[in-house]
Amino acid sequence: MRLPLVVRFALREMRGGLRGFYVFIACIALGTGTIAAVNSLASGLGDSIRAEGQALLGGDIAFSLIHRRASEDELSFLEKAGRLTTVATLRAMARPPDGRQTLVEVKGVDDAYPLYGDLELRSGRPLAADFADAGEVIPVVVDASLLTTAGLSIGDEFGLGRLTVRVADVITREPDKLSGGIAFGPRVLMPIEALDASGLVATGSLVRWGYRIAGTDRPMSEAEIEATIAAAREAFPTAGWRIETRNEAAPQLRRSIDSFAQFLTLVGLTSLAVGGVGVANAVRAYLARKRTSIATFRSLGASRGFVVRLYLVQIMMLASIGVVAGLLLGAVGPPIAAFALRDFLPVSALFSIFPADLLLAAVYGLLTAVTFALWPLGRAYAIRPSALFRDDPAPVAGGGRIFLALTSVSAALLCGLAIAAAYDPLLALFYVLGAGAVFVVLRVIAGAIMAAARQLPRSRSVVVRLAVANIHRRGALTPTVTLSLGLSLTLLVTLALVDGNLRHTLTSSLPAEAPSFFFIDIQNEELDGFLQLLNDVAQGGDVRSQPMLRGRIVAINGVAAEDWPETEASWVLRGDRGITYAAELPADSRLVAGRWWPPEGAEGNEVSFAAGLAEELGVGVGDRLRVNVLGREVEATITNLRTVDWETLSINFVMVFSPNVFAGAPHAHLATLTFPEGGEDALELAVLKRVSEAYPTVTSIRVKEALEAVNGVISDLALAVRAAAGVTLLSAMLVLAGTLAASHRSRIYDAVILKTLGARRRVLLEAYSLEYALLGLASAVFGVLAGTAGAVAITVGLMDLSFVFLPVSAIGAVVVAVVVTVGLGLVGTWRALNEAPAAVLRDL
Q1: What parts of the sequence cross the membrane (predicted)?
Q2: Global pTM?
């Protein structure tokens, strides 16, 4: 079977090699590979979570309660459902012998733990063996980080609550670590029966009780899981427990992976979009070299359509090479990345070939190639047979409305695919609109730069005149450099400013506004003495306290919380929240709707709701909330909305109830200590020592250390994000290199003519350097302005934070743009300046 004529001619045309298309192929491969690798990595991690769901959750089903243990009837029901293990988690203060205090995450476990997976210890011994060595001092196993921060070794003892415990071993792998949520300290694993003796479990203490169930002799089937959950809800409709299954293990991790994968996919698309400029340049340069061939085809009777199909087939063949290279990168990249990051990934990633992810990346790559190649192909459509008798290096006009329409259709398909395949289509839509707007604005700016250069008064300096003329001449580098560098720098500046503002919010506002300490699990009988101790130790400090319970919204106006429409504030409905009661409006709040209950007490059950969250959830004054607290469901009416400034980090609650709602309910208290000018380390450590000695069961959280830990996580994440976004800068550099290569012929032509007329190499080098520096500076200015606008939209619009412009990021963008543009420009220019005039003139 013979190949179609257009394919045979395309193959013959490609016998000349890939000269001029290496950048084309690299741009397609880079963008395609990024998308393929990111999606494959996300799929691999998702499969790992599903495969390890039982170990991550700690069972086939997990029932969790806050503040209270399961009742005898509830426990009896759970024991009959299958193998049962009970786990209790809470935060406490570890007190080493040297007096240092360390916040730790305590987990009490029974003999059946873990039901799935393996708890691995440094000694290789089973947990039961370590716990069996108990004497007068309770043995515990700990994270290695506790040994470092507290200066402990195996065999050393430290205080925990009212107990003295001994480090028996070190945890190397905890199978269900993710089920406990975010950890603010190292793990301490201890026998669950020792918790009562520690004094850490008391009325109202912030303890989460988990009851994990597994099949008796095999994993539970899906039908058995559903039946058990239905029976539990029917038998104990107001228990207030949170129920999760192995299929829902680590939901926050799943959401984080999906969100991160979507962001990196958008980075890949940005890389493809930037690379698309390189595609257009490569096609334009290739067709310029093929002017004579195209004119010959036309002279021999080939139609315009045949010529366009011929070169489109060639371009798609070359694009396929880039796509295949990208798919290979996408297939082998995730296992390599997982191996390199194995100490940071929360699960052992399972990897295989994911055809759907690779196919999606391939379609992205091919659509990008078509979208950016069609308009330059219009120039092949416009070449006439008379071009055989001319040798003009200037570009040919495009193909008019037909190719504009085809390019628009292809671009629409590419955008539609990006939106349809996105985890969050709305975010993808905003990205597409934003990227399109940036493209248009950059093209307009490039035109404005050229127009402004054209109107500048004639300079006396030859260098300046040549540089300015090159900026506005026909076929100038201005549009390409502005598009490629401007788009990539916009992304990098946006990310840098968002990262900087997050860290600025966490650190700069701390001394003036945030408390120095949070103290939790203060019992009613301890409250007066505890507050007096704080006032004595921290004279001049602002001491505040508030009753604290944990509750979960189960219904709004009779509609179950899980059935309420999804919004940005739906996190309020997903789990238990801290709640309180108060007779008076909190000092840092003001009413924006409704009325506060009178001092003598509310007539019924009333609740005040945070105004911003109420607006996002779609609730307001008069709506009714049903909240489960300590296994008791309470219904209250929203009688007012109040402002809450979360950035101050002071005591704030989503819901504040009238005092009558929880009259007599067991609970603990939360307290804060704020130093007016920010506390010195020595004073804060003294407070920490006195509190832990006098009240060993109270958990002290030093805000400065907690924020430093969060800041470290944000810094690591931001570094990873910016490294990934650096792919776009690499694409811009490839595009710039390709543009210089594409303009090499015209640069040689110009250099030879100028040298023939007496121009010296130094003058030409200075002129080209000035041209590239001006273009890089213009791109950087736009990148800074557009990136700042994007960062403002994200920090103020999405994160509801204040924005501060950070000049270091802007200066960095300017330096990067100028260095990249001038550096790559001079590399290409040097070759043009080395051409001998005689050799070039003979070929004119």
Answers
A1: 21-42, 263-287, 308-341, 361-382, 402-423, 429-453, 474-498, 719-742, 770-798, 804-827
A2: 0.68
